[in-house]
Amino acid sequence: MPALRLLGLLAxxxxxxCSGERPTRxxxxxxxxxxxxxxxxxxxxxxxxxxxxxxxxxFRDSLPEDEGMLFIxxxxxxxxxxxxxxxxxxxxxxxxxxxxxxxxxxxxxxxPGPEAxxxxxxxxxxxxxxxxxxxxxxxxxxLKPGMTLTF
Length: 151
Description:
The protein is an alpha+beta fold. The chain is 17% helix and 32% strand.
């Protein structure tokens, strides 16, 4: 029986190795390309695990303009975000299940704490995804509610 499990594992690894583009560095794992309406592409780190959804951009010192963080929720709901322990200003973009922008909050300022003084943002509309970009990028890329992103 252990030999069959090992054989199955090896087959899975072989099939994975045969599939298209492979990550070349650790930062490429769990990354999805988000295409903006103007054709620009953002490399977004996907957040799906509850721990990752809670941590988000905390403690990071920077976010390049062509990168972001994509929070993927299991279902649409009214999701609110905050900037507690986030070190850089962010644009937050809420998208519905069709990946249409329903809300944008520009240049949310960092909030070192304490927790009780950090405001929350968004959550005015049902969303399934939230894309965080470096502060000012949403305006620079002319993103507006009603536009659809591809990923």
